[in-house]
Amino acid sequence: MNGCVFCKIVKKEIPAKEVYRDGEIVAFRDINPKAPVHILVIPVKHLEDLSKAGPKDRELLGKLLYSVKEIAAGAGLEKSGYKLISNNGIGSGQLVFHLHFHILGGWQKKPEWQV
Ligand code: AMP
Ligand code: ZN
User: Where would I find the HIT domain in this sequence (predicted)?
Assistant: First the structure.
């Protein structure tokens, strides 16, 4: 979509540290990481957020989530664990309106919010 920064990454119009790409999914390092490992996983198809997905996107959404699992494992997070976040809509703090999952992990010790 015109002006969408993640569509530009999909089209390789702007650089990104990609960790995975196929015809439907792209994953890359967050430019402003909030964890030692911070990867964004996005569909190639421009969907603003999860609420904009329709019945025809069911298969894509399944693939997206399964890719998250594999990409997290590929980043070495399978054993240590990770946090998965998807902001949906302005009230959630979403800044980039192209559906994405944040994979956050790689802390050496338990983060403060973990007891
Ligand atoms: P959200 O608040 O869920 O929309 O988060 C958007 C995320 O995209 C933020 O964590 C940003 O740091 C990240 N981001 C924005 N522009 C880029 C970019 N060009 N390359 C990589 N990550 C980006
Ligand atoms: Zn987009």
Answer: 5-113
pLDDT digits (tens, 9 = 90+) for 24-80: 999 999 999 999 999 999 999 999 999 999 999 999 999 999 999 999 999 999 999
Q: Count structural domains, the chain.
A: 1
The question of whether 98 is a catalytic residue gets the answer no
pTM of the prediction?
A: 0.94
Domain assignment of residue 101, yes or no:
no
- Given the DSSP bridges, would you call strands 82-85 and 25-29 parallel, antiparallel or unpaired? unpaired
In a domain, 111, yes or no: no
38 Cα nearest atom in ligand 1: 10
Asked if residue 87 has its Cβ within 6 Å of ligand 1, the reply is: yes
Task: Domain of residue 61: give its range.
Answer: 5-93
Question: What is the CA(32)–ligand 2 centre distance, in A?
Answer: 19
Please tell me the number of the ligand nearest to residue 86's CA: 1
- Decide if 38 contacts 29 (C-beta within 8 A): yes
Ligand 2 is an ion; residues with CB less than 5 A from it: 1, 4, 6-7, 46, 98
Please provide residue 24's backbone torsions phi and psi, each rounded to the nearest 5 degrees. -120, -20
Q: Are 37 and 52 a contacting pair, CB within 8 Å?
A: no
